[in-house]
Structures are given as C-alpha cells and as structure tokens.
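BUG: 3D viewer hangs when loading the predicted structure for this chain

Environment: internal workstation, default settings.
Expected: structure renders.
Actual: progress bar stalls at 90%.

Input used:
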Amino acid sequence: MTPRPRLRIAPEPFAPEFSETGSLRQPVGRSARAHLDRPLFFLVLHRTADPHTSLARRVAVNSPAYLIWSPEDDLAAAGALEAIVGAMREKFGHMLIVTLSDQLAEPGVEDSPALPSFVATVAARGDERATRAADMLAKAMRRVEIDLRRCEVTLVADPPPDPIVDSLLAGDENIARLSFALPQIHRAPDGSVYPQLVRDLSVACGDALLRSACAFIDDGAAPRHYRSLGRSAVLAAALAADRKLDRISRSFDFLLSISPINTEAAFGQFLTDKGEVAPQFQYRPLTVDPDVAKRKLYAINLEYLEDPLLEHLLCEKRRELDHQLTMLAARNTPAFRPASTLLYGTVDPCLLADANALLDASATAHRPRGAMIDADDIAEAAQQLIAAYRATDDRFAAKVQLRHDLAAGLMVSGSTLMISTATRMARHRLDALLAHEVSVHLLTGFNGGIQGLSIFRSGLAHYEGIQEGLGVFAEWAVGGLTVARVRLLAARVLAVEAMLRGEDFIAVYRLLHRTHGFTARAAFNISARVFRSGGLAKDAIYLQGFRAVCDLVASGGSLNPFWLGKIAPAHVPAIEELLQRGLIHAPLFLPEFLDREDTRARIARLRKGIPFNSILSVE
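Structure tokens produced before the viewer hung:
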C-alpha cells in the first residue's frame, strides 16, 4: 500500500510574549525555542537536525538572544524570526543576525594520530558595521588556543544562502547578517564528542561572539565591557542547581565533623602520660551518609544552565563537596591525610622558608600578655560589633553561640560565631580577633547571601585560603597581629609540613615544644588541629593566604572583589564578568576597619615595599 504524503500544516502565527522588562522565553512550533534575556540588537540563530552533538547549538543557547529549531519547524521559525526581528528592529534601528553552523566533520580513524582541522569560517553581509563585526569575530577566534593549537579562520565574501534569513533581510539595509561555521575538533572518530573540548570550544566561541556584537555597535553606543552584553538573568535551571548544591552543603558541617570534641580531656591525659603517648580524640557522629550525599550531588544536572560561567563555578563547587564527603568517609583512617591535600594542597618550599624565618625572627621578641578575658567577654564584644553592622542593614543577622564541645578558640559556621567556653585570651587581641571572625568571615558570608546564588555565601571552590588570609590581614590591619600570633601561624605551617612528611603526633609536638619553645598547651593544640581526623593540611593556608593578600595589596591590587562573597583569587575574572552582566552586585557591607586612619596608614606603608617576613615592622 502506498503511504500517503505527509501534509505540511502552516503553524499558527507567532505572537511574542515579551515580559515587562522585554525578556522572552517561548516555545516555537513543536520543538523550537526563542529566548531573549532582554531587548538586544543581535540575535543568534541555529538550525539543526542533530542537537545532541552540535557545538553550534550549545553556543547558541548560551547566548543572551537566540532562536533554535530543527528542519521540521522551518515555517514556525520563520514566523518567530520575523516577529522578533521586527520588534527589536523598531527598538534599536540596526540589527545583527548571526547564523551558527557546524563545519562538516572530517572522517577520522580511531586511534589515528592525525587531528581534525582547527578551522572556523566567517562571512558577513551588510554595511561597515557588519564588516567590523566579522573582523572582530575572526580576530577573537584566531586568539583561541586549545590543546596547544590555535584556531585558523577563513574569511569569505558572503554568507551561504539561507532561504529563511535571506527572505527576511532582503532589501533592509539596517539588518546585517553574519555567518559563523564552528570548528569540529571536539568530535571523536566514532562520532561521539570529547566533553572537555566541547566546553572549552563553546566558551571560546561564545566569548568571540560577544566581542563581535560589541564591535557591531557604533562607537558611542558600545558598552564599557563586551561581556556586559552577556546573560543578565539566571535561568531557573541554574537557580535550582544552586539550591540543590546548597542543600547538600548544609546537610553537614565539615569542620565540626572533623574536629575533636574532647581536646581538653585529651590534653590532660597527655600531660599525665608525660607527653609520651599520642592522644585519642573523639568525634561527633556524622550527620550525613557520604555515599548517599554523593549520589545526590551527581544527580544534579548542570547541562541545562545555558551559562558556561555559572556551569563552571557550580561544577567546581560540586567537586569540592565531593572531596569533603570523601574526607568524611575516610575520617580516622590512613586515607584521610592524602584526601586532605586534594582540598588544601601541600606546603611549598617558599612558604616553609617564610614560616622558619618568622619563627627565627620572633624567637626572642617581647610578647606582652596583659589583662586576660574569657569567652563571655568575647561574646559580649562580638554582639556589639554585630549590632553595629546590623545598624547598616538588618540582614546582618549573625548569632553568637558559646560551645562546650570545641577546643579553645573561635569558629564561624554559616551565620553563627561559635566561641569555645575554654577560650581565654589577652584583651589586646580582642579587636584583631573580631576583625578576623566578624568583619571578614561573617561579613563575606552575609554579602554572599544577598547575591542571589547561595554559592557565594557557602563559598566558591577553594575560597578558604584567601578567606583565612583576609582574616589574618584584618588582624594586621588593626594593629593586632602580635608576635605570638605570627609564631602560631608559622608553627602551623611547620606542623602541617612535618605531618605530610610522615612525622607522628609526638614528633610534631616535640618539634614545636622543644625546638621552637612553644608551651606544652600551645604545642599540643597546634598538633591536635593538624592531626585531627587523621591529618588535616588546612592549617598551612592561614600564612599562605596572608602572604597572598599582602602581595596583592603591596602591588597595588584591590581587595574589593573579595568582600562581595566567599571567593578564591582565581575567581576574580569571573566576578568581574558577573558584575558586568549585572548578575551580582557590589557588597552591601564593608569591613569597618578599612575606614580607620591607622589601617589606611599601614596599607600605605605596605605598598612602599617590605619583605614579608618583616611584616610586623609595618606599624
């Protein structure tokens, strides 16, 4: 029986449903989609029958304004294109239509050493604006280097024919067309794709498109930074993924889970044993099953965020949470120590040399004690400082909690400042301690919490080094970084290095107590921190982070990006891009100590140049 021919039914006319802000996200036909982050003068188009392996489709959906469709929706796409371009053309006067396509994949042989050609093809039609956009696209792509290869670009005279686009643009001199055929080095010989190359290429091509769009605009209308043309709104998929990561992150308190609950009792027993028997530490029961949490972690789908930068940041955070869960599962086993280096690294020779120099320089320095205060005094002063920040905005809703199950000292967890009831300290250290814990840790947490994505409150991956460095810098900036404190930070570096080298608790304790003159209690507390849960490399990051902050400030760098949330130095370019795109904003709270005259004077002298191991002389 002869099959009946399939009828092509004309789709309903497309009526764009713009929001009050001019954004649009609307299905087209059976499987097509139109998306406008906001009213924009350019629109990216892509048509494909194979969306799952198409690099061009991925670049298109990462764009702030796009229309994607398959061949079965040609008629519907034509109607949508006409309606959207008409609306944007009326608003902006000039429009740039960018058609994306994939280069033809070269046939490959499995395990062949030959690599596919790294070539892009660019063409433009229109006035000098179109030429300018094409030239910038070609220039940007020629800068792309992946796997030690640079992209080659072929500039051709005219875009390939496109019945849908050509019919729309015919006769309108104010609509320019740019075509961009993307390289295909991400394709494997068997037809599959290499995931990392897909990501690297899509980011590079998307970045080049934004540069090209910026070049299209008249000089007077061009934005200050081309990345401000990128996405200015976070899709629901990204918000959902962020919430899920945050839920898993808050299901356990990492530092509390790996910190002993019997430090004071263990120290008493250690003295009874005359320092000859390693202490036995006890820990809280885990509040989470690491294996179950990991399954939930990797059930979060990050493929549909339509924002490569956010996808990258969330992927990084997921890996960090994975490492933390691995450490919890390995608590009090030989696997814990090497697992901790995944998060905190090892001690580099320069840091170890700095630590030894600081210990040598401070060995005979005068260390005044002065009047002592206890946990209640610290809690009262902390409440006063928190109240001062809350007077600026009541979202600074920090809590102060006295804890009997912590070793002497302070710890910030989320929005809570926890103070061990065993804490006693010199009163002259109070201002510095609160600058560290409240004006850095709590402040950046609250600033991050109002950014819209919880990842800025809980912390981007590997934020802890610079965060602790900022805390120590705050102590120094208010004039409270004492000789004793510097010796403590340096000793932690020596202890971590010795622990990672294979020394046991007793050997590290003796190194600190007998060789470097620390009291029995101080040497024990440092060793206990370093050997908790089986060996934690974290304590080296305090001095390392402090050195990094001092280097940044001394070179004239700005600390401003680090106040808006908990971030790492590697994230500063990402933060600048997100600020340009309006996805995050400047910090609501700034550390109060930055406004002090003595702080500004110390920073000015630091910028004149001084060796790091002489930092205490910058007073």
